[in-house]
Structures are given as structure tokens and as C-alpha cells.
């Protein structure tokens, strides 16, 4: 009747405040919490029934009226304790706006409040029970000897003062585990607040087995040893019978209460481990949008938080992969799709990013006057920042190439000033920019800090050395235009430091000299075959470790014109 009244009061209270609670939130109300403690009065009824059935001598010292009123007193004391422990949660549910953070905090401190309230309730009921027995014994005219008093106090203190409050705390934790699971479905309890990590000492996973051992083994065995000691110290058969029967009651309490405690604890651990197993299945199956409930604030709760963090991080990583894939496709679109059709010249390029996006760039842009710009560049850094600079560089070069009166020097000067304003943190761009005129076979070029391209001219290999620092470092950068006349059969090769700085197993770099050796052996190849030849040569020489983007630009004037 008392539980039904509480449930009705909760419903009326919620309607009066016009609180629209979902079934998941409503299920954590005070009535549902008190109903979850049904084991406590059931255990008390079992103890009382056992005392009656065994004709315990204690019945002689207790009046009949106390036998009927004691269960009601028990219900009142422990229901009041349960209400006090649950009050912060009920306060959150009573607010017009449900504060998830406040609800998390109230739920986190529920076990500690339950320990205090039920511990006090057990102490009060022990005092009440002993007082009733002593008062009743004075009315019935039977006195209790000191030995009988010790046995009685130990039995009642263990059963009502220790075992039942411990079981109440275990039931509270079991209810809290289920409540958090329900709340997590609505994202009302995430369990990631920093203050939740300061959980009570008795909730540490390593401490709980010792607590159960103490309540179900160490304490009762110690009490039974005291019973044996005081029983052997007397020859009074009445005293011995009384002490023996209290020991029997204690043993019954231990069997019933210990079984209930182990059952509740094991079911609670099973629920938690099942939830953790669900999280591990999410990870194994790649369901990174999953989320598991943080059902308790202990080591297992930390593990649940870790799994949720891993799921969130992997989900973000998957989203990042999608973004990187899109960025990679966009950057590939910035590179030339086809080789330019330049009379008497074969041109080819190659680009291989170390990551999804990179900072290497090559291009060839045909202008309206019949000339062609040849471009190879390397942006300092990797990833998104470098890729954004490449996109900016490509847009500027194509816009400048469409200008009728834009010279090579004008273009390089403009790009340097623009990069100087936009690049931050000491970043820069190495650039080799050349203009090929197929009519007079002149190659005008500017090398701003780039690895010197190689040119095989008249049977000799020469290096087109840089004449200025990389772009973006200085506002007024001194740039110089050089001119080279290409002869039939002349071959040009440019690359980025992804080749020269490739490393072997001994961390030795490939180097500029090795590039020259390869070029001297491979200059007769068609430009379209030179990139594959270079990669094969790198692998053959043991330079498998490539930690940077690889880009190549090849040009060759035809022998037969």
C-alpha cells in the first residue's frame, strides 16, 4: 500500500507541474526505485517466519504487538532512507527543464547517499529492535542474562545493521545500472563529466570482492566464533539454547542475505559486462556511430568511457577519411589530365602523394601566343595546409597564363608577393617555372629555391640552379630569368625532394648525385616512360621508404623534325 501510494503521489506531482517525462525518464522516479528494494522487506519476513517456525526462545521475551508493528516500522525507516537517497534525482525530475548535467551528478552520488542513509536506517532499526525486546522482557517478567544479551546484539547487528544495509546498497547500484542504461538511450546520461571520476571507495572493482567477503564470510564466522565462546562459558541449558538459536538465526540470515547479495551483484556485473561487450562488438564490426551506457562509476565505467571515446574518435576518423578522399579527388583534378600537344616536343608528368593530399604540384599551361608554361613546385609541409596552397598556386598560375602581356618574371613576382601575404609560420614554396617556345626552341626559366632540374644538352648533363630563395619568404624577392636554347634530342628532367630525400634501410638519402646517374643512363627514354623508370630504379637500389610526395616533370625535343 505504501509503495502504491508513492507511485500515485509521483504521478500527481508530475501532472501538477506539467512535466512531460518519457518512459525512460519516468522509470527512474522514486516509486520505481523503492519497488526495486522489494528484497529487503521480503528478507525481513523470511527472518521473522524462520524465528516463528523454529520456536526461537526470543519469542518469550517479545510481546505480540511488537511482532505486528515491527515490519511496518521497518518499511517506514527504510522507505524514508530510500527517499532521502533518491531525493536529488527526484529534484532533477521535478524541474520544469530537465538538466542532464545535474541528473548525471545526482546519479553519480546515489551509491554514497544510499550507503549513508541505509547505514543510518539499519542503526536506527537495531536500536528500535533491541529497545522493544528489552522493554517487552521487563513486562513479561523474563530477564536476559549478559551472555544472552551479547548473542542477541550480535545477531541483530549483523542481520539488520550490516547485512540488510549492504544488500540495500547493492540493490541501489543494480537499480542505478539499469537507470543509466535507460537514460543513455535518450542521451540524457553520457557519463563523461570529470567529477564523476571521483567515485566512492567501495565502488572500486578491486574493493567489492573484499567487501562481499567481509560481509558474507569474515564477519559472520567471527560472530559465530564469539557465540561458541560464550556458549561454552556457561552450563546453563537455557542460556546455551538461547545462544544456539541466535546463532541459527544468524546462519539463516547469512544464507538468505548472502545469496541475495551475491545474486544482485552478479546480475549487476553481468549487465555491465554485457554492455561493454556490445561496445567491443561495435568496434569489431566497424559501427563507429554506436554508443554504450556508462552504467557505473568505477573501473568498468572508465573502460566504457574509453570505448565511447574510441568509437567517437574512429567515427571522426572515418569522416576525415571521407573528407580526405574528396580532397584527394579535388587535388587530382588540379593536375593536368593530358599532356600538351607541343610541336616537336614530348612532355610528361607524374605525381604521387605520400598522404591523401600533398604539397607537390606540376602543370603545363598552353598560352594564347603558342608558348607553354612548365611548372613544378613543392609547398613546405604536408596535408591540408599544403594542399590549400597548391590550389591557390594553381589558380594564380592559370589566371596569369591567360594574360596576354604577362611575362614569366611578372608571374613569379606576383605569386611571391601573394604567397608572402598569405603564408604563415615560416612556410614557403619552391618553384621552377619555365616557358617553352616551340618556334625558336627557347626555354626561359626561373628557379626559386627548387631542386635544380637536369638538362642533357649537347651530350652533357647540366643543372638549372636556383637563382633566388623560395617564394613567400621575402616581399621583394630578387628573381632572375634564364634562357636556354634546346637542341634536337635535348632532354629535361625535374623532380621534387620526394626522390632526392628517399631513404634506404640504413636511412641514407638517395641524393642529387644518384638522380644524375640515373638521368645519364635513362635520357634516351621517352618522357612518358621516365617516371616509371625512376621509381623502378629507386626500388632496385633499396630506397623503399618514401615519406614525402614524389613529383616529376619530363621534356624532350624530338630528334627528327
Report on this model:
This protein is an alpha+beta fold and 561 residues long. It has 2 domains: 2-189 and 213-314, no CATH class; 342-557, PPM-type phosphatase domain (Phosphatase 2c, domain 1). 57% of the residues lie in helices and 11% in strands. The strands form 2 sheets. Strands 1-10-9-6-7 form a 5-stranded antiparallel β-sheet. A hairpin with a 5-residue loop joins strand 2 and strand 3 (372-379). The chain is rod-shaped, with a radius of gyration of 42 Å. The model is unreliable at 1-21 (pLDDT under 50).
**Structural class of the helix and strand makeup?**
alpha+beta
Number of helix segments? 16
Distance between the termini: 108 Å
The share of residues in helices is: 55-70%
Q: What is the residue-averaged pLDDT?
A: 83
Low-confidence stretches: 1-21
Task: Write the element-wise H/E pattern from the N-terminal end onward.
Answer: HHHHHHHHHHHEEEHHEEEEEEHHHE
Shape, per Cα inertia axes:
rod-shaped
Radius of gyration: 42 Å
Strands, count: 10
Question: What proportion strand?
Answer: 5-15%
Number of domains: 2
Largest sheet: 5 strands, antiparallel
Strand order of the largest sheet: 1-10-9-6-7
Question: How do you describe this structure in short?
Answer:
This protein is of the alpha+beta class. It is 57% helix and 11% strand. The protein has two domains: 2-189 and 213-314, no CATH class; 342-557, PPM-type phosphatase domain (Phosphatase 2c, domain 1), CATH 3.60.40.
Descriptive keywords:
561 residues, alpha+beta, Phosphatase 2c, domain 1, 2 domains, 10 strands, 57% helix
Amino acid at each position: 500500500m505504501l509503495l502504491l501510494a508513492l507511485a500515485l503521489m509521483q504521478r500527481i506531482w508530475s501532472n501538477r507541474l506539467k512535466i512531460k517525462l518519457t518512459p525512460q525518464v519516468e522509470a527512474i522516479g522514486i516509486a520505481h526505485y523503492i519497488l526495486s528494494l522489494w528484497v529487503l522487506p521480503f528478507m525481513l519476513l523470511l527472518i521473522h517466519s524462520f524465528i516463528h517456525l523454529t520456536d526461537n526462545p526470543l519469542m518469550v521475551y517479545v510481546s505480540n504487538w511488537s511482532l505486528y508493528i515491527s515490519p511496518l516500522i521497518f518499511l517506514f525507516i527504510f522507505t524514508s532512507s530510500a527517499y532521502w537517497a533518491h531525493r536529488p534525482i527526484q529534484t532533477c525530475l521535478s524541474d520544469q527543464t530537465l538538466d542532464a548535467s545535474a541528473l548525471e551528478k545526482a546519479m553519480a552520488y546515489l551509491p554514497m547517499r544510499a550507503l549513508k542513509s541505509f547505514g543510518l536506517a539499519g542503526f536506527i532499526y537495531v536500536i528500535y529492535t533491541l529497545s522493544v525486546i528489552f522493554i517487552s522482557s521487563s513486562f513479561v517478567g523474563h530477564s536476559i542474562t549478559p551472555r544472552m544479551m551479547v548473542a542477541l546484539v550480535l545477531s541483530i547487528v549483523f542481520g539488520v545493521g550490516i547485512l540488510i544495509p549492504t544488500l540495500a546498497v547493492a540493490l541501489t547500484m543494480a537499480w542505478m545500472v539499469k537507470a543509466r542504461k535507460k537514460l543513455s538511450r535518450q542521451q540524457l546520461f553520457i557519463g563523461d563529466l570529470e567529477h564523476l571520476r571521483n567515485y566512492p571507495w567501495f565502488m572500486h572493482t578491486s574493493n567489492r570482492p573484499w567487501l562481499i567477503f567481509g560481509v558474507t564470510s569474515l564477519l559472520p564466522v567471527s560472530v559465530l566464533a564469539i557465540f561458541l565462546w560464550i556458549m561454552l562459558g556457561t552450563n546453563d541449558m537455557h542460556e546455551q539454547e538461547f545462544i544456539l538459536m541466535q546463532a541459527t538465526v544468524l546462519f539463516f540470515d547469512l544464507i538468505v542475505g548472502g545469496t541475495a547479495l551475491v545474486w544482485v551483484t552478479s546480475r549487476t556485473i553481468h549487465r555491465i559486462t554485457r554492455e561493454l561487450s556490445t561496445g567491443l562488438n561495435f568496434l569489431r564490426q566497424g559501427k563507429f556511430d554506436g554508443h554504450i551506457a556508462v552504467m557505473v562509476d568505477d573501473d568498468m565505467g572508465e573502460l566504457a568511457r574509453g570505448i565511447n571515446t574510441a568509437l567517437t574518435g574512429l567515427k571522426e576518423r572515418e569522416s576525415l577519411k571521407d573528407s580526405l578522399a574528396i580532397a584527394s579527388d579535388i587535388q587530382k583534378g588540379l593536375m593536368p589530365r593530358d599532356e600538351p600537344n607541343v610541336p616537336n616536343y614530348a612532355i610528361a608528368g607524374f605525381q604521387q602523394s605520400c598522404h591523401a593530399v600533398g604539397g607537390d604540384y606540376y602543370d603545363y599551361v598552353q598560352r594564347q601566343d603558342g608558348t607553354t608554361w612548365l611548372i613544378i613546385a613543392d609547398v613546405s609541409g604536408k596535408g591540408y595546409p599544403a594542399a590549400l596552397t597548391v590550389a591557390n598556386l594553381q589558380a594564380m598560375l592559370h589566371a596569369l597564363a591567360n594574360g596576354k602581356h604577362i611575362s614569366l618574371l611578372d608571374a613569379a613576382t606576383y605569386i611571391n608577393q601573394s604567397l608572402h601575404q598569405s603564408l604563415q609560420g615560416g612556410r614557403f614554396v619552391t618553384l621552377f617555372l619555365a616557358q617553352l617556345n616551340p618556334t625558336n626552341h627557347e626555354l626561359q626559366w626561373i628557379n626559386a629555391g627548387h631542386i635544380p632540374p637536369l638538362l642533357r644538352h649537347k651530350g652533357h648533363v647540366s643543372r638549372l640552379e636556383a637563382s633566388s630563395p623560395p617564394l613567400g619568404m621575402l616581399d621583394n624577392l630578387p628573381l632572375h630569368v634564364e634562357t636556354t636554347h634546346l637542341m634536337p634530342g635535348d632532354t629535361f628532367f625535374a623532380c621534387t625532394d620526394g626522390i632526392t630525400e628517399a631513404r634506404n634501410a640504413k636511412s641514407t638519402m638517395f641524393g642529387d648525385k644518384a638522380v644524375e646517374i640515373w638521368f645519364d643512363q635513362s635520357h634516351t627514354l621517352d618522357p612518358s616512360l621516365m617516371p616509371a623508370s625512376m621509381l623502378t630504379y629507386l626500388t632496385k637500389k633499396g630506397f623503399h621508404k618514401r615519406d614525402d610526395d614524389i613529383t616529376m616533370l619530363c621534356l624532350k625535343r624530338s630528334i627528327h623534325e
